[in-house]
Design goal:
This protein is an all-alpha fold and about 60 residues long. Helices cover about 80% and strands about 0% of the residues. The protein starts with a helix and ends with a helix.
Length: about 60
């Protein structure tokens, strides 16, 4: 369990560091858009691979994002 915590801490820190480096080279709006693309990708993959369906409230929330 401790190893998993360390791995999550390292990769979590790397996310912030790489995001900071990316914003030095690209506009902040573009890096923000690309870093938040995980929501639609997660919805698509869960629909295709796991046959999950969204409720109306979940669809509304995804649209709001």
């Amino acid at each position: 369990m401790a190893v998993l915590s360390i791995v999550c801490g390292v990769f979590g820190s790397a996310t912030y560091i790489l995001n900071f480096i990316a914003q030095k080279h690209v506009e902040a709006g573009l890096t923000s858009l690309l870093s938040n693309v995980y929501t639609p990708i997660t919805i698509i993959l869960s629909s295709v691979l796991l046959y999950e369906s969204l409720t109306n409230m979940q669809i509304f929330g995804a649209v709001m994002l």
